[in-house]
TrEMBL record:
GO terms under biological process: immune response-regulating signaling pathway
Designated name of the protein: Immunoglobulin superfamily member 1
PROSITE patterns (UniProt xref): IG_LIKE
Span of the signal peptide: 1-28
Membrane is among the record's keywords: yes
Disordered: region residues: 1204-1228
Length: 1271
């Protein structure tokens, strides 16, 4: 192509970037496969100075790779071969210097070479953030009112992104994303949004450190001028090497015209400036890669553009694609009737010509402008001369060297009577005992009805829509010679020629599987009873010979009887059926499944041990052990005639065999399996769903009604089952329906029609009310009760599971009024899940089915995750999306709310996640939400419940709470953690300090609590702090600051003293004054209480802690404790010291001795010396105390303490004379009494200190000496 693509063209390419990206989205070409580009980003362990240590990461977008390559300035290369294939690798750069600054890109290895490079990362000098890159992504074309996304990549995480527009000093938008990229959205685009944009980044903690601005990007709004027209000369279909002219014409002169190819917007952008109102874009030598969708537009010198032209498809090919031809209503036409020949192909904008074999010229033409979905070649009043083979070809009005390929043909037959069909028997023409034979009447074109005749019985005649007739041989009445014929819809009164006769032979008899089981059980019980009788007779005979007592005989007979009864019951259990499994087919040839077919069998019971596949009901094909997914595969390979037949499977457990699965019928080597159609009971005026089970995934479905040749409904690939809906069932919808499946791509390969399903509307009672008493989402082992009720009296009820009857409840005549039935599952198992419903009936009239209840049994699959988008806090009247992310694909998801009995929403998806939209939420929508996912084909086995997610509907965030741990009063040099907590989860927190412009730290939204640690605290950390929520999404919800917390640092001033007035203990209701006194004037004091994290009064700290003071508020002091030292037993010559201890200081103690009316001793320190002279020290003692400030208030007495021992003789010496039983006081010129200082537990119990220690020891020596001498 000879076009200028430099200069202004390069500028326009960047100017219209947004336009180009929008075009692809507007044309629905999101499926265009682009060369995957790797992602490059930076990580650093220095968040405030990332250039200190840089690591570059390169990630493959969609596949694992064995090699990664890092490019620098297009010259230096570093490649890494990891030890195993991975998605991403790291390249260590280290500290950024002048030598390693430059332009970086990365690639990954994909066969047969390296991938497309990543976007260019520019690392500048140390101390600077990397320069961000800037591009635009559009959701719709950039017309007024559309939406545009501007993307800014900052290379680093946790950056603040700013969007600037030329002419504005302040940023027009900013974001703080969690990743490396920010998305700025411009909604409802207007001409005022045009302009030049740039983006910059800065570190959150350092708002003064900015990156260099990104390259400017100009946004142009299109659609200000009318759209031009784009035409191709000589035509839109050309051969490689030929030339082509594309003409873009508009209504305005002097404009610049631009042409682009949608499949490669960035490389296929061409422009021309002319003085006329049109421009020609010339392709000198076309190539295959020039094929694509082209469009054009024009713009003025201010870059204001027009609307886009219509898309023009250009084909560059050396061979035309094939066309296909179809005769309607049938290729067999009766003389004098009409027939339409439909010709279609993938090339648009080209005429079509109809050819007949043996003739050179076309029979008919269709112009390119007249072709639509309803246009066809029409043959009127056909005769025998119209018989022949027809084909259609493209009709070109210009010269080209493109070759015309061979096309499919249709053979048209004109007859006076339709040709005879073929008749076959399946599985054979010989009857087997208990088996029926299916006679199949077949013809290659659609028919209205088939008829079967029996030569031995002239009055015998059967009719069928699909041509299948089931013949049984009960009493030998099925053998004989049969033939069939048919009639078509266009001539319903004319029957075809009869088929060749077919003779059926075989023995008489009719035997069923249930009959065999019943007979086997009955025979087993008879054998057991006969054996039991023989054993009893044998025991009786032995007893007569040995003369054993009758009691032994009776006990033995009872034991044997029980043994055989248990054996009989076990024989019955062996044939008790379990839930039937599911059978389906899979293939790796979606266009020709019969080339390699595998049958799969899956059981809803987790205790299944083995699967068995059966053909034609009796032939054992193979057995397979059950896998972890409780399923097994039976590969059939390429289908042959030996594979034709009806297949079903069973699942085996230890003592039970399942019911057979639905039968899968293989009819031939090049035809799809025969589908199965089913529906609920038709109800007048209500919606009806018809289910077509096609066995294979990825097939298309078609629904037919008897009497209509064309499908009444068609569906694309929707899985192995399709649901056709009749919106409102009326009389006109009654009739016989069938369905067929076909391959997804043309030419279609069809299955045989399913067995017909007759829909007849019957008069019915209204549907009952059906529910579970608890939630239908239950855990294994739970108890579930279904309640089915109706206002009608004396009704019987039926419970259904997945359409099959499982339980019933007969009518009750005893209780008048409304009828109700309760169906109970005592302990729910994994196989009990499913869709339940109920109906009621009287003698002849049934009700409509109830609304179904989906019973989901959880805890089978891993739990999903539930997230709120954009966030868990929603403004009233807005909407929020709850995304439930599961583990497996193709599941059904349910959203639950705490307090709601039934799930709020259900959603079936093909992927592994579902989005639940809550519209215009209100205060009542606040609460805890959770979700589950479950499979619908296997008893609704579900996952564990997700972790609950709290949704807040409010216009103001709830206020968080800020507190310090361990306390807000911290000694200097210690550590403290400030915790910001609130009820909203999944939202970040930010911490503020008064008189500082920026926030200190940010805690991400991955935690429920924000922890802000402060280590090695100093005076600079003192101050008043607060915190608030920091959502990572844009919202108009108001944010409230938390409470203000003052952080106090102690250890800066001398320690004060603390006193209580009138004393440390007061009665309830009285006042107390705590006096804190320091050494420095103009000081502020803070009162603290032990065990609390905050001061009683918030003040600025200026001193150390004072000594602690214990405060008691009580109407009566607590009782003291009383102990004896060294023990409670007197020894000869030894005294005992009783120690009375209380919790309060400033008290006076008193010791009491049982039998003495007056108190024995008083003491201020609580120590009392007791001797046992003449046995007067023996007895029970107790003590109490009183406050010196309140002498009238006495404490409770202590627990009594008993002293025991032998009496001691009267002491002779003055030194050893016992002290009088009264308070020890100091006399003038007398040594002061010793002071007993009590030490903590584990050390000495007391220590005696005095000014006259020698005197005290001297007086003690005679005692010690006498004791030693006595010993």
């Amino acid at each position: 192509m000879t076009l200028d693509r430099r200069g202004e063209g390069a500028t326009m390419l960047k100017t219209f970037t947004v336009l180009l990206f929008c075009i692809r989205m507007s044309l629905g070409m999101t499926s265009i496969v682009m060369d995957p580009q790797p992602e490059l980003w930076i990580e650093s362990n220095y968040p405030q100075a990332p250039w200190e240590n840089i690591t570059l990461w390169c990630r493959s977008p969609s596949r694992i790779s064995s090699k990664f390559l890092l490019l620098k300035d297009k010259t230096q290369m570093t490649w890494i071969r990891p030890s195993h294939k991975t998605f991403q690798v790291s390249f260590l750069i280290g500290a950024l210097t002048e030598s390693n600054a430059g332009l970086y890109r990365c690639c990954y290895w994909k066969e047969p070479g390296w991938s497309k490079p990543s976007k260019v990362l520019e690392l500048e000098a140390p101390g600077q953030l990397p320069k961000p890159i800037f591009w635009i992504q559009a959701e719709t074309p950039p017309l007024p009112g559309c939406n545009v996304n501007i993307l800014c990549h900052g290379w680093l995480q946790d950056l603040v992104f700013m969007l600037f527009k030329e002419g504005y000093a302040e940023p027009v938008d900013y974001q703080v994303p969690t990743g490396t990229m920010a998305i700025f959205s411009i909604d409802n685009l207007t001409p005022e949004d045009e302009g030049v944009y740039i983006c910059r980044t800065h570190i959150q903690m350092l708002p003064t450190l900015w990156s260099e601005p990104s390259n400017p990007l100009k946004l142009v709004v299109a659609g200000l001028y009318p759209k031009p027209t784009l035409t191709a000369h000589p035509g839109p279909i050309m051969a490689p090497g030929e030339s082509l002219n594309l003409r873009c014409q508009g209504p305005i002169y002097g404009m610049t015209f631009a042409l682009m190819r949608v499949e490669d917007l960035e490389k296929s952008f061409y422009h021309k400036k002319t003085i006329k109102n049109e421009a020609y874009f010339f392709f000198r030598s076309l190539k295959i890669q020039d094929t694509g969708h082209y469009l054009c537009f024009y713009y003025d010198i201010s870059y204001r553009g027009s609307l886009l032209s219509d898309v023009l498809k250009i084909w560059v090919t050396d061979t035309f694609p094939k066309t296909w031809l179809l005769a309607w209503p049938s290729p067999v036409v009766q003389m004098g009737q009409n027939v339409s020949l439909w010709c279609r192909g993938p090339v648009d904008g080209v005429g079509l010509a109809l050819y007949k074999k043996g003739e050179d010229k076309p029979v008919q033409f269709l112009d390119a402008t007249s072709i639509d979905d309803n246009t066809s070649f029409f043959l009127n009043n056909v005769t025998y001369s119209d018989t022949g083979i027809y084909s259609c070809q493209y009709l070109l009005t210009w010269k080209t060297s493109i070759r015309m390929p061979s096309h499919n043909t249709v053979e048209l037959m004109v007859v006076d009577k339709p040709p005879k069909p073929s008749l076959s028997a399946w599985p054979s023409t010989v009857f087997k005992l208990g088996k029926a034979i299916t006679l199949r009447c077949r013809v290659s074109h659609p028919v209205l009805e088939f008829s079967l005749e029996w030569e031995e019985r002239e009055a015998f005649q059967k009719f069928s829509v699909d041509g299948d007739f089931i013949i049984s041989n009960v009493d030998g009445k099925g053998t004989g010679t049969y033939s069939c014929s048919y009639r078509v819809e266009t001539h319903p009164n004319i029957w075809s020629h009869r088929s060749e006769p077919l003779k059926l032979m075989g023995p008489a008899g009719y035997l069923t599987w249930n009959y065999v089981l019943n007979e086997a059980v009955r025979l087993s019980l008879i054998v057991q009873l006969v054996a039991l009788l023989l054993v009893v007779l044998w025991i009786r005979w032995k007893c007569r010979r040995l003369r054993i007592r009758e009691a032994w005989l009776l006990g033995t007979a009872q034991g044997v009887t029980m043994l055989f009864i248990v054996t009989a019951l076990l024989s019955c259990e062996i044939v008790m059926p379990t839930p039937k499994p599911e059978l389906w087919a899979e293939t790796n040839f979606p266009l020709a499944p019969w080339k390699n077919l595998t049958l799969w069998c899956r059981s809803p019971s987790g205790s299944t041990k083995e699967f068995v596949l059966l053909k034609d009901g009796t032939g054992w094909i193979a057995t397979r052990p059950a896998s972890e997914q409780v399923r097994a595969a039976f590969p059939l390979g390429a289908l042959t005639q030996s594979h034709t037949g009806s297949y079903h499977c069973h699942s085996w457990e230890e003592m039970a065999v399942s019911e057979p699965s639905e039968a899968l019928e293989l009819l031939g080597t090049d035809i799809l399996p025969k589908p199965v159609i089913s529906a609920s009971l038709p109800i007048r005026g209500q919606e009806l769903q018809l289910r077509c089970k096609g066995w294979l995934a990825g097939m298309g479905f078609a629904l037919y009604k008897e009497g209509q040749q064309e499908p009444v409904q068609q569906l694309g690939a929707v899985g192995r089952e399709a649901v056709f809906t009749i919106q409102r069932m009326e009389d006109k919808d009654e009739g016989n329906y069938s369905c067929r499946t076909h391959t997804e791509q043309r030419p279609f390969k069809w299955s045989e029609p399913s067995e017909p399903l007759e829909l007849v509307i019957k008069e019915m009672y209204p549907k009952p009310f059906f529910k579970t008493w608890a939630s239908p989402v239950v855990t294994p082992g739970a108890r579930v009760t279904f309640n089915c009720s109706t206002p009608h009296q004396h009704m019987s009820f039926i419970l259904y599971k997945d359409g099959s009857e499982i339980a019933s409840s007969d009518r009750s005549w005893a209780s008048p009024g409304a009828s109700a039935a309760h169906f109970l599952i005592i302990s729910v198992g994994i196989g009990d899940g499913g869709n339940y419903s109920c109906r009621y009936y009287d003698f002849s009239i049934w009700s409509e089915p109830s609304d179904p209840v989906e019973l989901v049994v959880t805890e089978f699959y891993p739990k999903p995750t539930l997230l709120a988008q954009p966030g868990p806090v929603v403004f009233p009247g807005k909407s929020v999306t709850l995304r439930c992310q599961g583990t497996f694909q193709g599941m059904r998801f349910a959203l639950l709310q705490e307090g709601a009995q039934v799930p709020l929403q259900f959603q079936s998806v093909s992927g592994n996640s579902a989005d639940f939209l809550l519209h215009t939420v209100g205060a009542e929508d606040s609460g805890n939400y959770s979700c589950i996912y479950y499979e619908t084909t296997m008893s609704n086995r579900g996952s564990y419940l997700s972790i609950p997610l709290m949704i807040w509907v409010t216009d103001t965030f709830p206020k968080p709470w800020l507190f310090a741990e361990p306390s807000s009063v911290v000694p200097m040099g210690q550590n403290v953690t400030l915790w910001c907590r609130g009820p909203v989860h999944g939202v970040g927190y930010i911490l503020h300090k008064e008189e500082e412009a920026t926030s200190m730290q940010l805690w991400g939204s991955t935690s429920n609590d924000g922890a802000f640690p402060i280590t090695n605290i100093s005076g600079a950390s003192m101050g008043r702090y607060s915190c608030c929520y920091h959502p990572d999404w844009t919202s108009s919800i108001k944010i409230q600051p938390s409470n203000t917390l003052e952080l106090i640092v102690t250890g800066l001033l001398p320690k004060p003293s603390l006193l209580a007035q009138p004393g440390p203990m007061v009665s309830p209701g009285e006042n107390m004054t705590l006096q804190c006194q320091g050494e420095l004037p103009d000081s502020t004091f803070v009162l603290l209480k032990e065990g609390t994290q905050e001061p009683l009064e918030q003040q600025r700290p200026t001193s150390n802690h004072s000594d602690s003071l214990e405060i008691w508020v009580t109407d009566k002091p607590p009782k003291p404790s009383l102990s004896a030292w060294p023990g409670t037993m007197f020894k000869l010559g030894k005294d005992i010291i009783l120690q009375c201890r209380g919790p309060l200081p400033g008290v006076e103690f008193v010791l009491e001795h049982d039998g003495e009316e007056a108190p024995q001793q008083f003491s201020e320190d609580g120590d009392f010396v007791i001797n046992n002279v003449e046995g007067k020290g023996i007895g029970n003692y107790s003590c109490s105390y009183r406050l010196q400030a309140y002498p009238d208030i006495w404490s409770e007495p202590s627990d009594s303490l008993e002293l025991v021992g032998a009496a001691e003789a009267q002491r002779q010496t003055e030194e050893t004379r016992p002290l009088p039983l009264k308070s020890v006081t100091k006399k003038e010129n007398q040594a002061p009494p010793p002071i007993l200082l009590h030490q903590p537990l584990g050390e000495s119990l007391w220590n005696c200190q005095s000014q006259y220690n020698n005197l005290l020891l001297y007086k003690s020596f005679p005692l010690l000496y006498l004791a030693f001498r006595d010993l």
